[in-house]
């Protein structure tokens, strides 16, 4: 029995960004399987359609969360179609590898716009409706960002900043009845790095490094991260806020 079957409360409405692939897709499907109505947001319509295939409770919404006015349009679309919003999952993110000597404005601006600025503006736009529902905000960060990450420090820094926002918002929004949590994945099988132009040898080296730093000795699945997201937003977690939950096979403590 899902959480929406045991009383007369309406099915929850969930907004997931970066829902076209990977963790976002798995999260959207996990919520839909529990009986929630899910608005799956992403830049490209085709992957969003694949996310929704076979899940009548998932509605794709193509949008660029970094574009001017898009956070407001997204929230307005949700409220106009579903009348409420219970969970916001800030999952969309991009990777920009490099060391300090290689960073350029062209690399920095889109990464921070997607990983940090967009979650702030989307959460701000969604806050009034989340407050009405006593909702939950989930920020997807990275467990490796809690340690040094040479060669990928800008990405890690953007996610670490999102963790500080998670803790700060949890305190700030508690009096308004809104919980804020984060899930910090480790090495997960996702296509986030597909556009980095890495050679097969580079990919193999990265995977080898990840495995060497993951005590459980394997790469995680997106569904394992989705489980953490749905668990932290469940009614049984109503006394949990400000937490950052690693889902990383023990990487952050090794």
Secondary-structure map with pairings?
Blueprint lengths: L12 E4 L5 H12 L3 E6 L2 H8 L5 E5 L7 H13 L4 E4 L14 H29 L2 E5 L12 H21 L5 E7 L14 H13 L9 H12 L10 E4 L7
Parallel strand pairs: 1-2, 1-4, 2-3, 4-5, 5-6, 6-7
Helix pairs in contact: 1-7, 3-4, 4-5
The number of distinct helices, counting runs of at least 4 residues, comes to: 7
Radius of gyration: 18 Å
Find the structural class using helix and strand composition: alpha/beta
Question: What is the H/E string?
Answer: EHEHEHEHEHEHHE
Shape: globular
Runs with pLDDT <50, length 5+?
A: 1-6
Major β-sheet profile: 7 strands, parallel
What is the number of beta strands? 7
Describe this structure in words.
By secondary structure, the chain is of the alpha/beta class. It contains seven helices and seven strands, in the order βαβαβαβαβαβααβ. The protein has helices at residues 22-33, 45-52, 70-82, 105-133, 153-173, 200-212, 222-233, and strands at 13-16, 37-42, 58-62, 87-90, 136-140, 179-185, 244-247. Strands 3-2-1-4-5-6-7 form a seven-stranded parallel β-sheet, with helices on both faces. Helix 1 packs across helix 7 (222-233). The longest helix is centred in the middle third of the chain and has 29 residues, at 105-133. The chain is globular.
Task: Provide tags for this entry.
single chain, 254 residues, alpha/beta, 7 strands, disordered N terminus
Brief description of this entry?
The protein is α/β, with parallel strands linked by helices and 254 residues long.
């Amino acid at each position: 029995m899902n959480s929406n079957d045991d009383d007369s409360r309406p099915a929850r409405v969930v907004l997931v960004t970066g829902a076209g692939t990977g963790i976002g897709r798995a999260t959207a499907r996990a919520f839909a399987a529990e009986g929630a109505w899910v608005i799956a947001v992403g830049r490209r319509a085709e992957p969003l359609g694949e996310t929704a295939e076979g899940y009548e409770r998932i509605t794709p919404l193509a949008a660029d969360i970094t574009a001017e006015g898009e956070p407001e349009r997204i929230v307005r679309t949700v409220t106009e179609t579903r009348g409420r919003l219970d969970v916001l999952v800030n999952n969309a993110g991009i990777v920009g590898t490099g060391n300090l000597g290689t960073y350029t404005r062209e690399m920095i601006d889109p990464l921070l716009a997607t990983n940090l600025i967009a979650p702030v503006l989307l959460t701000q736009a969604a806050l009034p409706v989340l407050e009405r529902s006593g909702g939950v905000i989930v920020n997807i960060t990275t467990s490796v960002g809690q340690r040094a990450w040479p060669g990928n420090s800008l990405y890690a820094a953007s996610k670490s900043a999102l963790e500080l926002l998670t803790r700060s918002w949890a305190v700030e929004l508690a009096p308004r009845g809104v919980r804020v949590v984060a899930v910090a994945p480790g090495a997960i099988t996702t296509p986030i790095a597909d556009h980095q132009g890495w050679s097969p040898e580079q990919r193999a080296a990265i995977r080898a490094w990840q495995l060497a730093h993951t005590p459980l000795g394997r790469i995680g699945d997106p569904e394992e991260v989705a489980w953490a997201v749905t668990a932290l937003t469940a009614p049984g977690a109503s006394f949990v806020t400000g937490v950052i939950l690693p889902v990383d096979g023990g990487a952050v403590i090794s």
